[in-house]
Amino acid sequence: AIKSPHVARVYQFHATAVPPFYVLDNLQGQSLRALLHANKPTIDAACRIGLHAALGLAAMHGQRATHGALCPENVWIEPSSTAKLLQFPLAGPWDGEARFGEQAVDYLAPELAEPSRAADPISDIYALGCILYELIAGRVPLAGGSVEQKLLRHRTEVPPRLDQLLPGSSRA
Prior knowledge:
three-stranded antiparallel sheet, 5 strands, globular
C-alpha cells in the first residue's frame, strides 16, 4: 500500500513458505552498507540519502506503518543515486539478539531495548539520525562494545559532536 519512490515496493509476502519470501521491485544498485564499505560519501551525498530516507519514512508513517529496523542494510542506493527503504525485515517482538543483530543495535532507539516496547515513528527517526551521523562521521554514534553494552550506551551516553570529530565542519 505504500507508494513512494523512496520505499521499495513489496508485492507479496509468503510467510508460510519455507523459507518465507518476498516478491518485490527488481532492485538495481547496492545497500547503503556496501556503499559505506566502498567509501565515505560526500556531505552532499549524505544529505541526499538522508532526505530520501526521510521521505520514505514519511510515506510509511503516513500509512501508519513503522519500519522498526532501519539501518544501512535496509537502505538501498540505486544507480541513479535514489535511496529506497527496504520494508523488510520489519521489527518483530523482542527476542534478544535475534531481533536486533549486532550491527542493527548501533541504530536502535534506547526505548526499544525494553521487551514491551514496539517500534514507532520516533524510533525510526532516531535510527535515521544514527545513519546520518555515520554518513557524515564515517562511524556510528556510539561505536564499540557488545550488544548489551550498546543498548546501555544508547540509553546513557551522548555521542561525540560531529564538529569535534570533523574539525572545520561547523558553519556559522
